[in-house]
């Protein structure tokens, strides 16, 4: 090598290297900032409107609608607040020359001991509407947050810490982006089913007449329980209506949600994710999705305690099914095991579908028209549905624990082999 080449190499070393712009990080920062501001702003506006309605309209503080609205508003604000870590770490990566924040978070296993106490305090607030309507929103967000992060500590226990940016980005996408897309797709499917139902009603003169009367009462705000029960009874007595509802909830919704819940993993092209990474990130995304559902669907003041306990099982189901799909995605990308992705997806939608099916079966058999059309076996089977839901919830929890222990053993084995 001549002196000119050596001099040229020295000059090249002195030129600062260009930092490649990370579009994925930029997207994470922009989306997290916008959705965080939107959710917090919506929460504040909703809370203000409810407060003004109560003050101006003279609605008593014990009104259940007011209490549920306050729960919903608090849930939106809490979801927006949880986007702040994603904004911080992605902004740090985007605008800072040094990469900090490698560890996502410390273990939160102790939250498991706090959950029963929080539920009990929420129950006391629920039972005292004179003041509990204003206190219950606090326990609503604390209980849901403690439950989700405790489940995350179960699946991540004693495993190596991951990037804080990736953790909060995946969690935030499951918390906000996945529910938004899933809601849009499910509404489009529901509209399609509604069109089919309307076409069917047109061919049934008596059913059409009852349906038009029902719409007229809705428009005039004169609907009564008797009219509503009579019309719905005719609908559910018609062959195929109850089956269509069951297919929508127990089949189509699981397919849609299991495709969309691990959206952050789908959006990580070129990232070298191991199957273990895919499983853990899937669990994180599923936790975010479950938390958003719990904060919004569980916003019912009168039955808050019951819904809160039941939603713990739903959270475990969401985490396990999304973790399975994430495991399948990573296996297909890193190891070319595409069959594993297919089997993981089938297992996820089956577990999710059975969970939804047992829930909808429990609700449908409470309707008089369903009780008269289904057989004795179906009614007796529906009586065991709550036990089936409990078994599935515990199974999902043990599934997360088992996966964690298996990952720990794999890491220890690898350490021994490396020595």
Which short descriptors sum up this protein?
419 residues, mainly alpha, 82% helix, globular, 0% strand
Describe the structure.
By secondary structure, the protein is an all-alpha fold. The protein is 82% helix and 0% strand. The chain contains 17 helices and no strands. The protein has helices spanning 3-14, 23-57, 64-81, 84-95, 111-126, 129-156, 164-202, 205-219, 225-237, 241-260, 263-266, 275-297, 304-335, 338-364, 368-373, 376-383, 385-418. Helix 6 (129-156) packs antiparallel against helix 12 and helix 7 crosses helix 12. The two termini are 41 Å apart. The relative contact order is 0.10.
Task: Lay out the secondary structure.
Blueprint: H1 3-14, H2 23-57, H3 64-81, H4 84-95, H5 111-126, H6 129-156, H7 164-202, H8 205-219, H9 225-237, H10 241-260, H11 263-266, H12 275-297, H13 304-335, H14 338-364, H15 368-373, H16 376-383, H17 385-418
Helix pairs in contact: 2-3, 2-4, 3-6, 3-12, 4-7, 5-6, 5-13, 6-12, 6-13, 6-17, 7-10, 7-12, 8-9, 10-14, 12-13, 13-14, 13-17, 14-17
């Amino acid at each position: 090598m001549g002196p000119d080449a050596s001099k040229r190499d020295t000059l090249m070393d002195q030129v600062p290297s260009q930092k490649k712009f990370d579009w994925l990080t930029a997207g994470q920062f922009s989306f997290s900032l916008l959705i965080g501001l939107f959710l917090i702003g919506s929460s504040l506006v909703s809370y203000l409107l409810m407060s003004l309605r109560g003050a101006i309209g003279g609605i008593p503080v014990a009104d259940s609608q007011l209490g549920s609205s306050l729960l919903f508003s608090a849930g939106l604000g809490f979801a927006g607040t949880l986007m702040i870590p994603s904004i911080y770490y992605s902004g740090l990566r985007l605008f800072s020359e040094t990469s900090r924040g490698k560890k996502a978070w410390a273990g939160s296993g102790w939250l498991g001991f706090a959950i029963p106490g929080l539920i009990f305090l929420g129950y006391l607030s629920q039972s005292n509407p004179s003041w509990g309507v204003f206190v219950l929103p606090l326990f609503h967000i604390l209980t849901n947050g403690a439950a989700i992060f405790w489940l995350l500590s179960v699946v991540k226990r004693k495993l190596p810490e991951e990037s804080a940016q990736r953790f909060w980005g995946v969690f935030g996408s499951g918390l906000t982006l996945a529910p938004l897309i899933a809601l849009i797709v499910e509404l489009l499917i529901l509209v399609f089913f509604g069109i089919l139902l309307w076409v069917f009603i047109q061919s049934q003169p008596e059913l059409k007449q009852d349906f038009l009367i029902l719409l007229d009462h809705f428009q005039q705000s004169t609907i009564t329980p008797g009219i509503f029960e009579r019309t719905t009874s005719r609908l559910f007595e018609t062959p195929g209506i109850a089956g269509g509802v069951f297919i929508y909830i127990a089949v189509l919704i699981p397919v849609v949600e299991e495709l969309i819940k691990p959206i952050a993993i789908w959006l990580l092209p070129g990232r070298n994710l191991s199957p273990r990474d895919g499983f853990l990130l899937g669990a994180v995304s599923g936790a975010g999705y479950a938390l958003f559902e719990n904060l919004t669907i569980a916003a019912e003041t009168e039955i808050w305690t019951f819904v809160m306990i039941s939603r713990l099982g739903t959270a475990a189901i969401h985490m396990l099914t999304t973790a399975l799909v994430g495991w399948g995605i990573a296996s297909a990308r890193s190891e070319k095991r595409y069959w594993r992705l297919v089997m993981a997806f089938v297992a996820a939608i089956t577990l999710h579908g059975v969970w939804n099916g047992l829930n909808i079966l429990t609700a449908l058999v409470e309707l008089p028209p369903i009780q008269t059309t289904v057989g004795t076996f179906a009614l007796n089977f529906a009586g065991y549905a709550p036990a089936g839901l409990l078994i599935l919830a515990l199974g999902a929890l043990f599934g997360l624990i088992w996966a964690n222990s298996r990952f720990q053993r794999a890491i220890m084995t690898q350490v021994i082999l490396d020595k």
